[in-house]
Amino acid sequence: MSANVVAIKYARAFAKLTGTEPQKAEEYLRMLSGIKKLFEISEASRVLCSPAMPLDLKKSLLNYAIQDLTPDDLCKNFVNSVVDSRRAEIFPEIIDCYQSIIDAECGRVSAHLTSAVDLDEDELSSIKNQLEAIFNKQVQIKPHVNPSLLGGFVARVGNNLVDLSLKTRLDALTNNSAL
Fold it and tell me: pTM of the entire structure?
């Protein structure tokens, strides 16, 4: 079974246990964010992903990461059960899947926005408002820069792509003129 399928199952189980009431779910996401940040540290990530490392060490490391975020027993037990199942390495995917479940329940979507240059707050806000009007949902923008777009932007929202980049327009003109 692929790691993503397993992560989805863990995320659904955790969502079922915690409920999807927005305020409560946001609190659990805040608690789990400490774990995701831990995976960004290469040494910690190596320990958590290594099958040779003792489970107690992994549990201690993960519980240390969330202790300042005042996790409840449900959160601690979930973390420990994932480690006991030898699935600690997929925590970032579990957390991403849990975030997606909560976002869907709350009527939110994430937009991966790629532009040729850094966009200022006004431009991001304008694009966000337009995407919210198109998708009729709350949109959370995750900006990225890719200079090869030349100008404009590309927004990916779920399986939908809004491509208003200059590169795509120039490519289309080139293809049409070649005919």
Answer: 0.74
Per-residue pLDDT in tens (0 to 9) along the chain, 179 residues: 566 899 999 999 999 998 878 888 888 988 888 888 889 999 999 999 999 999 999 999 988 888 887 778 898 899 999 999 999 999 999 999 998 898 888 888 888 999 989 999 999 999 999 999 988 999 989 999 998 888 889 999 888 888 888 888 888 888 877 65
Expressed as residue numbers, the domain containing 35 is 3-104
Cβ-in-10-Å burial (0-12, 13-18, 19+) of 153 comes to buried
CA distances (Å), origin 34, targets 15, 28, 41: 18, 11, 11
Last residue of a domain, one of 104, 135, 154: 104
Are residue 90 and residue 15 in the same domain, yes or no?
Answer: yes
